Hints:
Layout: H1 5-14, E1 19-24, E2 27-32, E3 35-41, E4 48-51, H2 57-64, E5 69-70, E6 81-84, H3 91-105, H4 108-111
Antiparallel strand pairs: 1-2, 2-3, 3-4, 4-6, 5-6
Helix pairs in contact: 1-3
Amino acid sequence: MPARPIDRLRAICLALPEAVEKEAWGDPTFRVRDKIFAMEKRGDGRTSVWCKAPPGSQQVLIGADAKRFFVPPYVGHKGWIGIRLDDGPDWSEVDVLIRRSYRLIAPKRLAVLVR
C-alpha cells in the first residue's frame, strides 16, 4: 500500500467497481455513476476523508473516538462522517468505512459486488 494518505485512499476507492476520481472544490472526490461516495479534504490543514454513513453511525464513531472522527461541514447534517488520515489511521477500518459508503451510494447491482 502506498505511503501518502491520498495514494492509500485512492487505491482503496478506485478498486471498487466503476469508481472514478474527479476533482471538485480543489480536492479529489471518488464517485460511482457521478455520485460521490468519498472526498479527500485538506481545507482545515489536516488531511481527512469524508464518506457517507448509515443513520446512527456518525454518533457512534465520534463517541468512540472524537480525535479521529468528526462531523464534516456541508454534508455532516446528512450523516456523513469525517475520518482523519494524517494521524496514522487504521487503514483496514478506513477501507471498511469507504466500502460501506460505496454500498450506500452505488446502484444496487454494483453495491452487491462489494463486501
